[in-house]
Design a protein that fits this description.
The protein contains five helices and nine strands; from the N terminus they run H-E-E-E-E-E-H-E-H-E-H-E-E-H. The chain is α+β, with helices and mostly antiparallel strands.
């Protein structure tokens, strides 16, 4: 009887490991948009208190990232977004929206990462943008084409190579 129980437990452990491996290989952090939807409109303030509206970017592909200083994945991802902006120049606008943190917290984090002034940094005290894209992981990034449609939505972190590949889809 003990041997049978041991085999059952071993079988369950193997199934769990296979499930974890399969989940890690899938792209479940990507949301495939079968029907592209319009990107949400926003009206948020930058670090200087200037109101920035989504309407200002009409006709330009956008990469919009939701981040927070408490997010461990944002430590490298935010600097990669700055490199992405520099590489693509005027072809895209990279916008990083801080999730409901005070200006001092957001600015200290972005200053330490060397991204302040290199990408568009906005504050979202109500966390409305994150909610408007159906966010539930951190970070969340949408890739918006020049017509204002979300063509790609990434849940979780990305490296620079993946960012470049996703930007190519919206150009």
């Amino acid at each position: 009887m003990a041997r049978k129980t041991l085999y059952i437990i071993a079988g369950i452990v193997v199934l769990i490991i296979l499930g974890i491996l399969a989940a890690n290989r899938s792209n479940e952090n990507d949301i495939t948009e079968l029907q592209p939807r319009q990107a949400p409109e926003f009206r948020l303030k930058d670090y200087g208190g200037r109101e920035v509206s989504s309407a200002e970017f009409k006709g330009k592909p956008l990469v919009i990232n939701s981040w927070a200083a408490w997010c461990p994945f944002c430590v490298q991802e935010l600097p990669d977004f700055a490199v992405l902006q520099e590489e693509f120049g005027d072809k895209i606008a990279v916008i990083a929206v801080d999730r409901a943190e005070p200006l001092a917290t957001a600015k200290e984090f972005s200053d330490r990462r060397g991204v302040t002034g290199r990408i568009i940094l906005l504050l979202d005290p109500e966390d409305s943008f994150y909610q408007s894209v159906g966010g539930f992981s951190m970070p969340e990034t949408i890739f918006v084409d020049r017509d204002g449609f979300i063509r790609d939505h990434k849940r979780g972190p990305m490296d620079l190579i993946e960012m470049r590949r996703r930007v190519e889809k919206i150009l």
